[in-house]
From TrEMBL:
Its cofactor is FAD. Gene3D superfamilies: FAD/NAD(P)-binding domain (3.50.50.60). GO terms for biological process: prenylated protein catabolic process; prenylcysteine catabolic process. Belongs to the prenylcysteine oxidase family. One of its GO terms (molecular function) is prenylcysteine oxidase activity. Transmembrane segments: none annotated. It comes from Triplophysa tibetana. Residues 1-17 form the signal peptide. Keywords: FAD, Flavoprotein, Glycoprotein, Oxidoreductase, Signal. Pfam families: NAD_binding_8 (PF13450), Prenylcys_lyase (PF07156). This is Prenylcysteine oxidase-like. The keyword Nucleotide-binding does not apply.
Amino acid sequence: MRQFMYVFLFSFAHVLSESDFAKFDGAPPSKIAVVGAGIGGTATAHFLRQHFGPEVRIDVFEKNSVGGRLATVSVNNQEYESGGSIIHSLNLHMQDFVQQLGLKYRKSVAGKTAVFNGEEFIVEETDWYLLDLSRLWWRYGISFIRLQMWVEEIMEKFMRIYKYQAHGYAFSSVEELLHSLGGSGFINMTRRSLSESLLELGVSQRFIDEIISPIMRVNYGQNISIPAFVGAVSLAGVQANLWAVEGGNKLVCSRLLKLAKANLIQSQVTSIELRSMGEYPQYEITTSSQDKKTSEVYDIIVVATPLQQNVDTGISFQGFEPDLPEMPGSYHQTVASIIHGYLNCSYFGYPDPKLFPFSSILTTDASELFFNSATSICPVNITSGFRRKQPQEAGVYKVFSPKPLEKNELKTLFKSYYSVQVTDWLAYPQYGSTQGLPPVVLHDGMYYLNGIEWAASAMEMSSVAAKNIALLAYHRWNRQFEMIDQKDLMHKVKTEL
């Protein structure tokens, strides 16, 4: 096929410009666009630079702040995380970013967690691990052991992605990626509810209601009907060895852009238009900023922002026949309120706030509860002498709720407060056990990063998707199809060592 193309081009060279001819002659693309500068978009720019080399121009478009759903708010001249706040020790891409970018791990500040059912605390963490373990055993039997073994088995299989990507293998769909890691089992986990899977595993309903449900509420604002794969990723994220970036997780995004030597264009992308067909199509991006419209043509485009109908991207797609498919599903609304004030410990059964021992309160799926969690949070810069505020002191709390808190609800949770800053997020997909997974390839040279969120939404999932799309775009451009959607990759990787 490639030899035929060369003959064709030689015969009709007079109708092609010099730049058109060059891109068929083994040259890299001249311009790549990434739409969105969250962790997914900035990581994509970084990986694209790694694979396509220094000559390619990489433009990253962002209509709001760099960082996307990694964001901070200011309280008394201190910054606090209002978006994605924790990273797991097994998140190898995020760890690698921190090392490459010269960032530091934020100091951890100890704190205890409890689960509130609307009337009382039903699970309470203490300072003694063995006591906590014995209480779990007494209340739930071996459910927590079965759960831990299940999560560890899934994470062990998921970790294969790093080996595959290190060897340069890519996947053209989320289904192909999941299947390469866990076979049909992982695919089925995106189609079965978490509660169904755990009950089949032998985990008790009581444990699901009192432990698993609160974790899903704080992490995804949803209940135990979410798919099992999402649930497993969420449960992995509440284990030990969690960390965050000193100065704020959003620093990873801005630093990745600099490392990639990408051009940040802070304007609204209004349209993406297919301008030329053929083996190497081109696309025109039109942007609007301060009533000024500009257009630019690109060889490759990565859309790193949600395209679901309830997310206002402001982007129209033109010239595609047939039209690009509509993305299924919608994004879930969750509200993060950063509140500076005095926690109402009496509401939780502690009239004397000096006796209140918990820094983080999770909630069960009780109808009368108007919030998902309330946590005493620390600033993104922690000095050596820092200590967490005691409940009798005015502290900074992050409260997750399905809708903005009303005044009577704020007065229920807090004796008094100085400030309330509300971030209304479309933070992650509204999960359903029968949902489909969005495509990765939108067109020959156009890719969609956020589809992976419908398998599971996390910083590391976006980073894995970014690496995959950079590899996929590189291999498809260079017609290295043997590196895409290969079967039996574990065997291939072992034989390559």
